[in-house]
User: Fold this.
Amino acid sequence: MEIPAEAFEDLRYAKAILENPSLAARIVNFFGLPVEKAFKLLPARWSDAVTRAAQTALATALHVAVATLADRGPRPSSDILHKVFVTATGAAGGAFGLAALPIELPVSTTVMLRSIADIARNEGERIRLPEVRLACLEVFALGGRTRSDDAAEVGYFAVRAALARAVSEAAQYIAERGLVQEGAPVIVRFLTQVASRFGVAVSEKAVAQAVPILGAAGGAVINLLFIDHFQDMARGHFIVRRLERTYGAELVRAAYDKI
Assistant:
């Protein structure tokens, strides 16, 4: 059995997005900034600060973002509206540089998670389900690759497999107890795993914002690139999940590997 031609083309589109996740490339293409060299502009111990900011942002987003959407079946996602909000926060953050990151990042991440959930709903997901909420957060792990990754660990399905146990445990916990105890080990473990990868994209964003000449306008553009990047990751992720619901995970994976 093979999936139909139209579904195969959807999968081809999804794979083209998911296997080429590079926010740094988008920043370089737009600004001409040498991102690797620009890492030297960041203050000492910036890596720890970025990781903490990323994890705090994800925890805040988990509580807020999906609660503002209702399960009303598939409908067009409001990608542009969410871009407007995130661009505005980027303008504010860009005016103050790196110092604004711990304040700006939770806001922009919450808006981005709401956009991701909106895309999930558009692809037929029931966003009130705990497993779907966590699948929305998984998107942040798809947008960056850690320095410890090797060639076998960076693919889309490899990242999903690495997160599978943490997602399952966290979904079961949320289904049974909700998010009242946000410090529960299973929730913290999941958020930590996602934050380790999300932090890569946050670092690339922080590098660009560290360039003094960019200012507010540059911050706005960087955040526009930031949300555009994760909206693309979300679209690819939830296309794959939609096809898995229809044709089965094994058949979709086999077709994915053929592309």
About this structure: The chain has a mean pLDDT of 79.
